[in-house]
Amino acid sequence: MKQQTKLIFGILAFALVIAGAFFTYRHLGSNSIIDDHRPNPNAINEQAPDFTVIDEDGQVVRLSDLRGNPVVLNFWASWCPPCRAEMPEFDQVWSELGGEMRFMMVNLTDGRRETTQIASDYIKGQGFAFPVYYDTQNEASAAYGVSTIPTTLFIDRDGNIVRRVLGQMNEATLRSNIELIH
Fold first, then answer.
1. For residue 107, what are the domain limits?
2. Which parts of 50-101 are beta strand (E)?
3. What 8-state DSSP symbol labels residue 153?
4. Which of these, 136, 139, 156, 169, has the minimum number of CB atoms within 10 Å of its CB?
5. Are residues 75 and 126 located together in one domain of the fold?
6. Does 84 lie in the same domain as 22?
7. So what's the pLDDT on residue 3?
8. CATH, residue 100
9. Which of the four pLDDT bands, split at 50, 70 and 90, describes residue 17?
10. Residue 5's pLDDT band (boundaries 50, 70, 90)?
11. Are the beta carbons of 156 and 181 closer than 8 angstroms?
12. Which strands make up the sheet holding 52-55, listed edge to edge?
């Protein structure tokens, strides 16, 4: 009888740990984290590191090519549920403001789990119109130390990072951060 009681308490404790982990994950996954405390070169109000990516036509594009324009720089992958969840809002805001600022939707293209074809098929299948860039050499994500996706940076006209947001954003959060650079 004593062994059965221990087993029951052990199962209950395990279930509580799993339930706690599940609810913590759901809570953290639904909230954006504004990361204003991180090491250089990504410090707020410092120059955004330059990088090269490939556009949809296979042409090389540099972040520095966009100098003079505010830039929304988003790192994503098609297999990432929070990335997919925020993309319709990015597309909506881009369609409204695309002429006033630049959006760089940078796909983390590792060549295995995420290829240019997989990402392109996803974007076309969803009907998104914003410009997509492919980080096939891991240069852009390395320049910004991206370890969480989605990650979005808001860069002003002078090329300075104004805000970095880790995790999924809703439209209101996206718009409020754009106001900082617009």
1. 33-179
2. 52-55, 60-62, 71-76
3. E
4. 139
5. yes
6. no
7. 78
8. 3.40.30.10
9. low
10. confident
11. yes
12. 33-34, 161-166, 151-155, 71-76, 102-107, 132-134, 52-55, 60-62
Same-domain status, 130 and 161: yes
For the record, the structure tokens of 133 come out as: 């860039």
Q: Mean pLDDT throughout 77-83?
A: 97
- Residues 20 and 66 grouped into a single domain: no
Q: What is the mean pLDDT of residues 102-121?
A: 96
User: DSSP code of 40?
Assistant: T
How far apart CA 22 and CA 42 sit, in angstroms, is 31
Two structure tokens written together for 50 = 């330059």
pLDDT(162) > 50: yes
pTM above 0.90, yes or no: no
What's the chain's average pLDDT?
86
Residue with tokens 């990650």: 151
